[in-house]
Design a protein that fits this description.
70 residues, alpha+beta, two-stranded antiparallel sheet, 1 helix, 47% strand, elongated
């Protein structure tokens, strides 16, 4: 399931049994640009024990790096 947070879509996924990560994309599907390099999505954070923790971590990444992700 995809969760919208501001202008971003967050998709939690289970990378292994009980190991949750989050993928961040722009909601309008344009690439995220970091230092001039274009990425269709970003996979962030650590392996969390549940999806809600992965989503919270993704939100904190968005809040911290929003201005750099041109």
């Amino acid at each position: 399931m995809t969760y919208l947070y501001e202008d971003f879509a967050i998709e939690p996924f289970e990378a292994g049994k009980g190991l949750w990560h989050a993928r961040i994309r722009r909601a309008d599907m344009t690439p995220v640009v970091i230092n001039g390099v274009s990425f269709p999505s970003l996979e962030v954070g650590f392996a969390w024990s549940d999806a809600d923790m992965a989503i919270a971590d993704a939100k904190s990444h968005i809040d911290r790096f929003r201005k750099r992700w041109g």
